[in-house]
Design goal:
heterodimer; A: about 550 residues; alpha+beta; Flavocytochrome C3, Chain A, domain 1; FAD/NAD(P)-binding domain; 2 domains; 8-stranded mixed beta sheet; about 20% strand; globular; B: about 260 residues; Ubiquitin-like (UB roll); Fumarate Reductase Iron-sulfur Protein, Chain B, domain 2; 5-stranded mixed beta sheet; 11 helices; 5 strands; about 35% helix; flat
Amino acid sequence: MGYTPEMLDLIKKVEASRPERLERSKKGIDFEPLTLAGREEVLSKFHPDYKDDGRRDVKIGPSKGESYPDEFVDVLESKARLLVSGAELDKLTEYETEVLVIGGGGAGTAAALMAQENGCKVIMATKLRHGDANTVMAEGGIQGASQEVDSPYYHYLDVIGGGHFTNTPELVAALTNDAPLVIEWLERLGLMFDKDPDGRLRVRHGGGTSRKRMHSSGDMTGSAIMRVLRDESRNRSADINVLEFSSAVEILKDSQGRAAGALFYNMETEEYFVVKAKATVMATGGYGRLHIQGFATTNHYGATADGLVMGYRAGVPMAFMHSTQYHPTGVAFPEQNIGLLITEKVRGLGANLLNTDAEQFVFEREPRDVESACIIRECMERGKGIITATGRVGVWLDSPMIEILEGPGAVKRELPAKHIQFMRYGIDISKVPMLVYPTLHYQNGGLTITDDSATNVPGLFAAGETTGGVHGENRLMGNSLLDITVFGRRAGTNAAAYAKNFDGEVGNVNMDHVDAYHKELTEAGVDTDRVAPLVLPNYTREEIMEKQLTTNYQGGLRA
Amino acid sequence: MSEAKKEIRVATGDRAILPEGTKLVPIYIMGKQYQVPETMTIQKAVEYAGYQFIRSCGCRGGICGACPTIYRVAGDYHLHFCLACQTVVQEDMYLTQMPFFPANRAAYEIEEVDASAETIMKLYPEVMKCVACNTCTKSCPMDIEVMEYVNAAMRGDIAKAARLSFDCIQCGLCSSRCPAQIQHFHLAQLCRRVHAKYQVPQAEHLKPRVAAIKDGKFVDVLKELVGSNEDTLRELYVAREMEPQDSSDWQPEEKQFL
């Protein structure tokens, strides 16, 4: 294992240029940062958010005319898996409940718990296992103004400044107001927060915070939160029925146009079934697995934008879907770690970014989006990336410099998790550089919601990464775990209130809005056999698909 | 398009492209042989072979616990346990994946239990049947001292059980192997929750803040921010006092919004 002989040859060049680079670094001579004009130029040409190619206007639906990445417009401008008549939906009805939660990550589980606490019977359906979600992958922490020198006021300013003042203000107010309540809720449920011996919560700064308010549970905060919420929902299984491996494929409506549950597909038995509900919560997460413009991603397997597609067809407009967070340094080698995050700290400690000729090509502390664009330019336009045996491209991140700048042992001390992660594959990053490339990290946008987590469709609520507006065009670290818990709770509470006020039982359900959406597609001249939601990404090799003579793919899924 | 650009054929997403001459090795997926690239993880090799995962695949980054995998290598009697997303294939490995393993989970009221040996005995009495074979520890893909935390829980040392089990991703390999039929990962979760709730001092400083928020203390302040224009917000943003890294004695000058 470890680097291939070809790569080790290239690393010799890195070693050869290192002494000179270290000399410059010790003298404080950095690679020339870009001017503002230079930044704009590289962003406009190479950042996926700014490039004109790779995106187009969506032709139909409530956000018609907005420009989004092609991969996302493709799923919006797709046909439904199926159209079923009202009579048939009636026959397919297997469950009736007060609150239906679609998605079993942090937001969905928080919603289910709160809906149950507010007296409702809940069905939570998820296409993989309960807890297979981006929530478990969040390492850094959760923000909240818990300390005396802080308050929701300062948290608000940090969030909206970080989002370039584009965020939806009411959502920021909800996020920051509820943050300490969420921290207290998690503590009460038995989350092992990092604490001082007297019980005081330990807090740290994060990028863009004016006060220390990053709470953590080791370096696996998201996993710790997911484990506790899931465990608690299992304690309440009399009221919260969890349906795993059940993919929602369409929202259903009643005769008054209210959301009234969903149509599901059992991926194992290939049956469809209906859950009727008085209120429905969409908590399906983001779209990293659409691999916008071919990017690798930090996201989990199920992040295929299903909830966005279903919500959009039901009539919910998009907010901020033009904006995606790419992290400049994702792993490009070894293959088993592809797309995983390498913290900015590595560059902060002094490691250079280098091309295949071991030359510097970018200032290492440009803003995230600019840094990403410069790496993409170096590889794609200038052809100076390093190509791996698995067809990846990347640039060197010269971590051994840290050993010299900060003293022997600094890599292991400052980056323990990364050191172990690479050692597992025979790469000692204190001795050899890492290969990195930007990775698709977070979907800033999503379904438009109010601060009650309500959408414009009566009976349809939404929470978490599937919504947009909380973070504007840029999310700060530690605010995604907060987002899912704050708005998950609000969605559950408000969905329960809605269900309790619901007059009578849920009537007949229909897919008329999907039928109308199909007609709109035809009228807009979109002639396609694409199907969405994708449900799962399709990673089947072309060589194999060519021989699957009788296989159909519906979205990403074999059928 | 420049010449250089044309030559670059890069892999997209999670689908790898293999250059000519990549060495393929035989692996046996549930007994059936497939030739896969030697550098791949088990998870990607199974996809390379032509499978589409519905089960046994989640975060693809070693933290969700969906892909526990058991294998032997031809000619060696040892059983190996790993996560498919974190482990590179080996020539002649015979593998199977364990997408689910039955384990009874005891329901409890978190507000009504305590952090004691009695709680453990009541909810998971089978813990006492541990034969100290250490098979659980040997089968843990996260290198957790599973038997150590089970023994700690038996003794009522809940704090130790919580600490030792902290990295558990609940994949279930330990419980699949246990001759005493213990359900380790549910037990561990119970220990972590009751430890955090009943043994660790609670955050007293958080209580007045929570009470203030429930009283609506910040409603008006936030409303004003919501109604502020961008210029005002920019000014306030730039003027924020920054808490220093070393902040043990630090107090902000502006106190009216605290």
